[in-house]
Design goal:
This protein is mostly helical. Helix content is 78%, strand content 0%.
Length: 69
């Protein structure tokens, strides 16, 4: 059983040193973080667009006062 763990440790360390493993892991980390932050980024974009349109849509309100006694 001791030999199994020695071989397992060696093979696992070689696998972790493999360039494709590192590249794939980094791509997956970036993709998952992108999916997690996508809703928040969408909210920020929509908020900035709505702020721009609300500034454009501001209209003047005129109030007429009748001061007859």
């Amino acid at each position: 059983m001791k030999q199994f763990f020695i071989i397992f440790k060696h093979e696992l360390s070689q696998y972790f040193k493999n360039k494709m493993f590192v590249i794939t892991t980094l791509i997956l980390i970036l993709a998952v973080s992108g999916f997690l932050f996508a809703p928040r980024i969408g909210e920020i974009i929509n908020k900035s667009k709505s702020a721009e349109t609300s500034e454009e849509k501001k209209s003047e309100v005129l109030v007429k006062s009748d001061n007859t006694n």
